[in-house]
């Protein structure tokens, strides 16, 4: 069965002579040339670097795709990591500046590796999030509901997608964010 997936894109460092927005455009093209079928692309947004003052602002977007029949989430993650590498992504610092970041937000309604594992990572205290990373893919992304730079662009491509654990749509999660968080995400 084919699965609909959401991927968040972000960059705040130039790659070669490309601006972050150019890198995002090139990455979307590369993803579209993979086994995935591109269905929708959000507008590009400028968002402040996190933590504040840690570097240049980011360019963010979200895309909606369809995975091929029988294609697993782990295979899609491998495709994304290959594309990140192609565009100079290094994984030296958690949440550090980057030339390209591709996050698999959702894979259909899959919760992985289990509901308990998902809940553990979703409820991890903020101070531990900066120093701990899961060893396996967690789906849906455990921070989707907290991130304006993901939810605001996702409104363009999948406002009705419903989180399989929280039972909230993108629209509902976005509306629940503080107004100042949504206001930080500015269309380019």
TrEMBL record:
Alphabetized Gene3D superfamilies for the sequence: 7,8-Dihydro-6-hydroxymethylpterin-pyrophosphokinase HPPK
Keyword check for Cytoplasm: no
Keywords per UniProt: ATP-binding, Folate biosynthesis, Kinase, Nucleotide-binding, Transferase
E.C. number(s) listed in UniProt: 2.7.6.3
One BP annotation, GO: tetrahydrofolate biosynthetic process
InterPro entries recorded: Hppk (IPR000550), Hppk_sf (IPR035907)
Family per record: Belongs to the HPPK family.
Record's protein name: 2-amino-4-hydroxy-6-hydroxymethyldihydropteridine pyrophosphokinase
Native species: Thalassococcus halodurans
Lineage: Bacteria, Pseudomonadati, Pseudomonadota, Alphaproteobacteria, Rhodobacterales
């Amino acid at each position: 069965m084919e699965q609909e997936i959401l991927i968040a894109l972000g960059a705040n460092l130039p790659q070669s002579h490309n601006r972050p927005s150019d890198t995002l455009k090139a990455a979307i093209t590369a993803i579209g040339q993979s086994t995935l079928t591109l269905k929708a692309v959000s507008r590009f947004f400028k968002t402040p670097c996190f933590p504040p003052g840690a570097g240049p602002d980011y360019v963010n977007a979200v895309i909606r795709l369809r995975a091929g029949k029988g294609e697993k989430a782990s295979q899609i993650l491998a495709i994304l990591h290959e594309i990140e590498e192609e565009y100079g992504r290094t994984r030296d610092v958690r949440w550090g500046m980057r030339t390209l970041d591709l996050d698999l937000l959702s894979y259909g309604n899959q919760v992985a590796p289990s509901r308990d594992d998902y809940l553990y990572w979703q409820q991890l205290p903020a101070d531990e999030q900066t120093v701990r990373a899961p060893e396996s893919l967690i789906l849906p992304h455990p921070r989707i509901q907290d991130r304006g730079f993901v939810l605001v662009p996702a409104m363009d491509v999948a406002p009705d997608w419903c989180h399989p654990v929280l039972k909230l749509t993108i629209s509902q999660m976005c509306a629940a964010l503080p107004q100042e968080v949504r206001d930080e995400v500015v269309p380019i």
